[in-house]
Amino acid sequence: MSNSEFKSLGCSKWLVEALNAMKIVQPTAIQKACIPEILKGRDCIGGAKTGSGKTIAFAAPMLTKWSEDPQGMFGVVLTPTRELAMQIAEQFTAFGSAMNIRVAIVVGGESIIKQAIELQNRPHFIIATPGRLAHHVLNSGDDTIGGLKRVKYLVLDEADMLLTETFSKDLATCVSILPPKNKRQNLLFTATMTDQVNALAKAPQIDGKPPIFSYEVESIDNVAIPKTLETTYLLLPEHVKESYLYQILTSEKYAKSSCIIFVNRTVSAEILRRTLKSLDVRVASLHSQMPQQERTNSLHRFRAQAARILIATDVASRGLDIPVVEFVVNYDIPGNPDTFIHRAGRTARAGRHGESLCFVTEKDIQRVEAIEERINKKMDEFTDVGDTAVIRKSLIKVTAAKRESLMAMDKEGFGERRKLQKRKNESKEKTHRRT
Ligand SMILES: Nc1ncnc2c1ncn2[C@@H]1O[C@H](COP(=O)(O)OP(=O)(O)OP(=O)(O)O)[C@@H](O)[C@H]1O
Fold it and tell me: pLDDT by residue (tens digit) across 358-405?
């Protein structure tokens, strides 16, 4: 048994040992601040930069309390994306394996019936995306979701995102089945504070409940990105972006790096994936137009380093914890500076070094300035571009690969499939609204 500081924060002995086995001994700032307060029964709003250990900050106190009386459904964790839900569920399962923990994942794109059966088995923790949990709340009987009426904890991970309009209806449905606010503990965590989150931090105290504990590690609004993150930009014309990307990814410096490339649209992700694949780069992709099984497989391949590069839309920008990622490329610049913080935060996690590069065309300059203002830091110019003669030469090869990709996508009706899917989703949404 070690002299882990988690013990002095009040975590159970078995959990301290489980953390220890994973070499997690010294709590991070957010963990030190939040664990004792959550154990006291307080609601908590925790703000800390990407990769600074927010998951354990809420998981450790919940698991400690659960192990004192491991009965029935104990806690619900909501997250905005399916992959993040799966990752959190894996962590709960790993931490609680010695205690026979039961964790259910309730996310879209997976079998509703299988999930209903899992819920009937009374899992201790339910890790869910709001849309699918709301579906169960609206359509399943008490034998499936009745246990939710007695949960002790509700966690909103990536709370700023979950509190946006996109999730409001589903979130309200999920919360409607839980015990009232004063009969459950509410834990909110985020890497980017928004007005909605701040407003909750200032909410009046509920009678008989300890006051909300609100904590931000060194004001994340002023220091929004990890210290170990290098931020650079490369100014370039739109039509050479693919060639530069290919050149950089295959250059001596980055040829072995694990890298996530963020684009703004699913169609761009598909074009890039095909183009790079035909140029023999080991790529995987992750976007919302892929079937869930493919999304899961892609992420597995990337995590296992079978694919060195992940091309992704913002479904991958939040929460994903893949320690080997050393390099994040913003192939397209996001419109919301907070999105940049989350994307770049897929690297430089837990004190590791990481790099973020922005591809900047003329039309992106204002967006980059807004990001620099948000992160309180000027980006440096990227200098590892390599030989421009080589890039010029590769331009022909890369352009040909892109043209072939576009032709293949056209033939397969990629755009059509998306339109069809969109129409299907819209009609599903209408039915959902009617029910
Ligand atoms: N006390 C600790 N000691 C060592 N490693 C830790 C500690 N706490 C967490 N970690 C590791 O740090 C990494 C990042 O943690 P986590 O995923 O919880 O970050 P986060 O703050 O939720 O980030 P994001 O805002 O991107 O969701 C994980 O790999 C986790 O296992």
Answer: 999 999 999 999 999 999 999 999 998 877 777 878 889 999 999 999
Ligand 1: nearest atom to the Cα of 87: 17
Q: Give how far the C-alpha of residue 249 lies from the chain's centroid of Cα atoms, to the nearest Å.
A: 24
Q: Yes or no: say if 118 and 145 are a contact pair by the CB < 8 Å rule.
A: no
Q: Is 174 helix (H, G, I), strand (E, B) or coil?
A: helix
The ligand 1 atom nearest the CA atom of 23? 4
- Ligand 1 atom 31 nearest Cα: 53
Mutate which of 2, 5, 56 for ligand 1 pocket (most atoms within 8 A of beta carbon)? 56
Going from N- to C-terminal start, the domains of the chain cover 5-216, 229-417
Mean pLDDT, range 314-326, rounded to an integer: 96
pLDDT tens digits, residue range 98-127? 999 999 999 999 999 999 999 999 999 999
- pTM for this structure? 0.92
Joined tokens for residue 216: 């931000």
31 CA from centroid of ligand 1 (Å): 10
Helix (H, G, I), strand (E, B) or coil at 32: helix
**Is 351 within 8 Å of 228 (Cβ atoms)?**
yes
Class of domain 5-216: alpha beta
- pLDDT score of 423: 64
Residues with CB under 6 A from ligand 1: 24, 26-28, 31, 48, 50-56, 191, 319, 321, 323, 345, 349-350
- pLDDT one-digit tens code per residue, 49-91: 999 999 999 999 999 999 999 988 999 999 999 999 999 999 9
Question: Is the alpha carbon torsion for 417, 423, 427, 433 positive or negative?
Answer: positive
Spatial separation of the C-alpha atoms in residues 63 and 52, rounded to whole Å = 19
User: Which distant-in-sequence residues (6+ apart) come within 8 Å of 83 by Cβ?
Assistant: 286, 295, 296, 299, 315, 316, 320
CA 93/CA 320 separation, integer angstroms: 17
- Enter the tokens of residue 386: 């390599």
Beta bridge partners of 75: 125, 153
5-216 and 229-417 agree in CATH topology: yes
Q: Which CATH architecture has domain 229-417?
A: 3-Layer(aba) Sandwich (3.40)
